[in-house]
Amino acid sequence: MRNKKLLTVFIILLFAVLAVNTYAQTTKLKRIGSYTFVRIRGKVPTQEVMKTLADRYAADIKYGFELAGYGDLYLPFIDQLKTAAFKDTQIAVGDQIKWMLFRSHGKVKVAKNIEWAGRAPLEVFGFTVEKDYKLYDFIIPKPCGNIALVDVRDAAPPLAVCDLAITPLKANVNDPITIDMGNTKNAKSMTVEIYDAQGNRVATQALTPDSPKWQTKFDKPGEYAVKASALNMAGIGSTNPCEAKVYINVPPVCKLWTSCLPCEDYVGRPITFDASGSTDPDGEIVKAAFELTDVAGKVVDSYTATQKPFLWEKIFQAAGTYTISATVFDNDGAVSAASDACRLTFEVTQKRFFWLMEAGPLLAKGTYTTYGFLRGGMFYWITPKTLSFILSAGGAIPSKGDPWKFMFLANALLNVHAGPAFFGGGLGYSTKEQNVRKSGLDIVGNIGVDVFNKYTSMGSLFFEFRSPLGGDRTFDDHHKFALGFRMLF
Would you tell me how many other CB atoms lie within 10 Å of the CB of residue 451? Predict the structure, then answer.
């Protein structure tokens, strides 16, 4: 019983070996045309053959490729068949064919390991299909239109063609720079390297076809060389030139000058701020922006000069400590850095001491004889715009003769100011206007309004009243009225 089982296993193994050998044996094909996959009569032009196979028999071709174990080659075959360059060629007697599609009893079948054993070379159309860097050589015998795979060869992947685009090619410090290699062809990977003017590599970035862009920036001015390369699927580098240069603009250098420092007695007077000394090493200055802040850092005024010589003339209406800052711009939009050379702190003071002249008509009690008076003196701001002191003296000439006579007048006054209006009073002295009268002290009051105020000079209209102070000088005989114009300078 045991021997019978061994004999059975041996026979089964023998049949399996015979079957494998039979399958692996080469089929000798001596004639063609009996089992046609596609019936083609005569020599049809290549383009018509392609259309016939691709359009009418696509489903049969797909099924046949799957039978042959090349189902993944179907789509590339159909796509490339439509535009393939067919060539007339021959299969020599003894040439091998890997497999061939044919039709038997209406069904698509495949024959493998075929050798052409006809009496003469076989006339065929030949074309090649490429997939995954392999070349598949197909033939179609002219009489029958069968599809056959003759050979499979390795195809070297195409060389990568590097393409580099940079936007912009000229920029300012810390401006975004976009490097784009999106138009590079046949690449598996790309690399970008950046070198400064001394040849030092300052940055490197790896890119891929799926992520071909890189945005960067430069924190120092100067010229930079951008060099790119690409590797194809076989790791072979591109050979075409792929370089560009980026220029980062050198920012301008600001320099600021003022017409006064310190600015004593400059309230109401123009102060000039001058940025014309600023320079730009690789371009030109096109504008200067000035900003004025007070002691608390609050911006009180600003100005932009867009024409040379880049000046700002400013009149200050109030005393105080101020800071002037300037920023200059070049023709490429670069901005000067903040520096002490373009930032100055200074004090503006208001003029407090003035000389004065005042004149006008005066009426003296008696018959209210008219006098013309002229006084000189000084004016001093105790508190600017609020409280002032006046000291003046001069003479008055009567419009009539005897008994009226020239008299001397002097005043020492305090005035309170509220905008252009003011009022106040003090002591005065006046000599006798007739021989029968007496000289003495006066109480003086005045009220008036500023006609103009240029801070360094002022003009006012005022009304003055004088009354005798004590002694035997009576009010009826010694009071006076005056209307005058006071000029401060």
Answer: 13
pLDDT in tens, 4-41: 555 444 444 444 433 334 445 788 988 887 888 876 65
CATH number of the domain that residue 177 is part of: 2.60.40.2550
Tell me which H or E stretch contains 63.
Answer: helix 58-68
pTM value is: 0.57
Per-residue pLDDT reduced to its tens digit, 332-350: 889 998 877 799 999 999 9
Which pLDDT belongs to residue 26?
A: 84
The mean of the pLDDT values for the chain is 89
Question: b/e map of 328-348 (b: 16 or more CB within 10 Å)?
Answer: bbbebebebeeeebbbbebeb
Among residues 366, 368, 359, the alpha carbon closest in space to that of 459 is found at 359
Strand ranges of the sheet holding 257-258, from the earlier edge strand across to the other edge: 257-258, 270-274, 311-315
User: Do 442 and 386 share a domain, yes or no?
Assistant: yes
**379/390 Cα distance (integer angstroms):** 5
The residue from 248, 274, 301 where one domain ends is 248
Whole-angstrom Cα distance, residue 175 to residue 220? 11
For 36, which DSSP code? -
**Beta-sheet pairing, 27-29 with 107-116:** parallel
Tokens linked to 31: 């004639």
Buried b (16+ CB within 10 A) or exposed e, 271-310: bebbbeebebeebebbbbbbbbbeeeeeeeeeeebeeeeb
Residue 329's pLDDT is what?
A: 95
Window from 3-7, 152-156, 176-180, 433-437 with minimum mean pLDDT = 3-7
Q: List 294's β-bridge partners, or say none.
A: none
**Rounded to the nearest 5 degrees, what angle is found at the Cα of 144, between the Cα atoms of 142 and 145?**
75
Domain total for the chain? 4
Residue 170 resides in a domain? yes
How many whole angstroms separate alpha carbon 396 and alpha carbon 358?
A: 12
Residue tagged 């102060």 (tokens):
271
CATH of the domain at 399: 2.40.160.20
